[in-house]
Amino acid sequence: MIERRAAIYTSPEGVEYPADKVVKALSKLALPGRLERINAVLDQRITSLALGVEDLHHEHNGAACLRTAEGLGVHRVYAAEVRNPYPHPGMGTGPNPTDKKGRIPKGITMHAHRWIDLELFKGQEELPAGVELVRAAQKNGYRVFGAGPRGEFDMLDLPLDQPIMVLFGNEASGLREETMSACDGIFKIPMYGFTESFNISVSVGMVLEQLGSKVRHTLKHKDAYGELSEEEKLKLRAAWLARDMRQVDVILRSLIG
Predict the structure, then answer these.
(1) Distance between CA 22 and CA 73 in Å, rounded?
(2) Helix H or strand E segment including 145
(3) With contact defined as beta carbons under 8 Å apart, do 132 and 180 qualify?
(4) Which stretches within the chain are classed as H helix?
(5) Span between the terminal Cα atoms of the chain, in Å
(6) What is the pLDDT of residues 50-94, one digit of tens each?
């Protein structure tokens, strides 16, 4: 029988602590209701629907996509950097920083990047970043569907019988051809007016809300609300409580040792 290792929290200084001990220690110092709020969010996180973005240019769009995904409970976001660093707080300044330190104002993201699982792809020799992203998602069990006007699937017809990632491209030019070729399929968002496309953050919001609602409808019939395992929730609970604390390493040394 394989012995399972207890969930571990790694502090900012790189010290490993049992996640359950971190939760027990820090919950006593948290603001009233904070642990209950964290638990409520964790219980509703979904992972069978993920968001992917490739080569976004405008900082506000990148930040808005993160905020939308987090607000809808989508826990995993993959971002491919091609010509531009992925534009969100703390991950590169981008060509047109929106403040003197090159960060996105917190009013746009509401710190959403702190509460999701974000993975960046920069590409490798002879492997473009977008294709690297798609292959990584597929390796992790996702079918990847790219957004494009020539899509063979309508948004609401995307199959949800296994985990999927919806992948969006650059605001002006969309997904790169090699990235689309690596996807499992291409989908389109129905348009009924003269306008031929939506803003990227609007598109992301529409797709994640519609597909997320379908995922949650299925979960409801299974008497479930979210998809994180108990171990995943424990590790995140510890990490999120720790993020609320200043000098958390000092605190943990004094309370846990």
Answers:
(1) 24
(2) strand 143-147
(3) no
(4) 19-27, 34-43, 59-71, 106-109, 129-139, 177-182, 200-221, 230-243, 248-255
(5) 31
(6) 999 998 877 778 888 999 999 999 999 999 976 656 654 444 433
User: Where exactly are the structural domains of the chain?
Assistant: 1-45+229-257, 46-227
* Cα separation values, 164 from 46, 74, 76, 106, 200, Å: 11, 12, 11, 29, 19
Residue type, 24: K
Give Rg (Cα) of the chain.
19
Domain 46-227 CATH (choose: 3.40.1280.10, 3.10.25.10, 3.90.1150.10, 3.40.1390.30): 3.40.1280.10
d(CA 121, CA 59): 17
pLDDT at 244 over 50: yes
Q: Which two tokens stand for residue 107?
A: 């009013």
Q: What is the mean pLDDT of the chain?
A: 87
